Amino acid sequence: MAEKLSKAERTRQFIIQTTAGIFNTKGYAGTSLTDLTEATGLTKGSIYGNFENKDEVALAAFDFNLDQVKTLVDQNMAKASSCYEKLMAFVNVYDKINRSGSPRGGCPVLNTAVEADDTHALLKNKAAIAINQWRSRIAELLRTGIENGEFHPETNVHQLSISIVALIEGGIMITKVTDDNSNFEHITRTVQLILSQIQINKA
C-alpha cells in the first residue's frame, strides 16, 4: 500500500500542481505572489509556510512540468520497437504538446531557458541539466542503434544528438511565435530525413 502523504506534503503538492502552469506560461518574473494566492486559494502565509520563497516554488514547478513531458515521452517510447521509432517519439511528443497545449504553456525547458538564461541562475541550471539529460538519452539510443546494426557505425553520436535537440527546441519556438503548427511538421520531416540517412537498409 502506498504511504499516505501528510497534510503538509499534500498542501505542498497542491501548490506545485496548481501553479506549475502559471510559471510555465507567464514565466518566473511575470508570475506574482497574487497569481499564486488566487490560483491556489491560499494565503501568502500558507504558501510561504510550505516553501521558503518564490524561487523554491518556481523550481518545484519546473520539475513538475518537466516530469509531465518525460512521462509523455516514456509512454510514446514504450510503443516503439526500433531505435528509429524511439527517437521519433521525442519529436512526436512535442508535436502533441504544441497542438494540445498540455502541459500548459508548452515546453518548460524552452520557456525557462529563454527567460532565465541571464536573469535566474537556479532556473538556468535546471534547464541546462534537462537539456544535457535529453541529449544523453538521444545519444544512448543512437549508440544502441549502432550496436544493433540499425544505424551506421560512423554516425557522429554527439553531434547528431545535440542537433536533434536543437531542431526540436527551435521548432517549438518558431511554432509558438508564428502560431503555425505546420512549421513543426517541417521539423518532423527534417529529423526523419536525418535519421533515414544513418539507417542501414536491410534486405
Q: What's the CATH class label of the domain at 61-198?
A: Mainly Alpha
H-E order: HHHHHHHHH
Query: Could you estimate the helical fraction of the residues in percent?
Result: over 70%
- Let me know the average pLDDT: 91
Number of discrete helical segments: 9
Instruction: Determine Rg (CA atoms, Å).
Output: 19 Å
Strand content: under 5%
Profile the largest sheet.
none
Helix- and strand-based class? mainly alpha
CATH architectural arrangement of the domain at 61-198:
Orthogonal Bundle
CATH superfamily of the domain at 61-198: Tetracycline Repressor, domain 2
**Uncertain spans, ≥5 residues at pLDDT below 50?**
none
The counted number of beta strands is 0
Shape: elongated
CATH fold-level topology of the domain at 61-198? Tetracycline Repressor, domain 2
How far is the N terminus from the C terminus? Answer: 51 Å
Description:
This protein is mainly α. It contains nine helices and no strands. The protein has a domain at 61-198: Tetracycline Repressor, domain 2, CATH 1.10.357. α4 (54-78) crosses α5 (83-100), α5 (83-100) runs antiparallel to α9 (182-198) and α6 packs across α7.
Summary keywords:
203 residues, 9 helices, 0% strand, elongated, transcription, Homeodomain-like_sf
